[in-house]
Amino acid sequence: LNDLPDFAEQNPSSELLARFVFRRMKVLLAPYPVRLAEVMVSEKASSRAYYSEGPA
Q1: 56 has pLDDT over 60
Q2: Would you say the pTM of this structure is higher than 0.85?
Q3: Residues 6+ apart with CB under 8 A from 24
Q4: Which of 17, 35, 52, 55 has the most CB atoms lying inside 10 A of its own CB?
Q5: Mean pLDDT of 7-31
Q6: Does the pLDDT of residue 35 top 70, yes or no?
Q7: pLDDT at residue 54 greater than cutoff 70
Q8: Contact 10/20 with Cβ under 8 angstroms?
């Protein structure tokens, strides 16, 4: 992850990874009649990060 331009200046934390995945998936899903509600990244069973955006 550290080699990706999105993480060049920041630590690839779970929170930032969830935002990264959400934004990439939102672009990939744009041609389809769906709405991405939320992304959850889990490091382990007790450690999760969620990312969502308001209604499009």
Answers
A1: no
A2: no
A3: none
A4: 17
A5: 91
A6: yes
A7: yes
A8: no
CA atoms within 13 A on the CB side of 7: 15
Signed CA dihedral, 42, 44, 45, 48: sign only: negative
Take residue 53 and report the two structure tokens written for it: 């955006």
Tokens of 31: 């041609």
- DSSP E strands in the chain: the ranges are 39-44, 47-51
Q: Do the beta carbons of residue 14 and residue 38 sit within 8 Å?
A: no
Distance (Å, whole) CA 3 – CA 6:
9
Quote the Cα angle for 21-23-42, to 5°: 25
Q: At 12, list the tokens.
A: 């690839």
DSSP state of 43: E
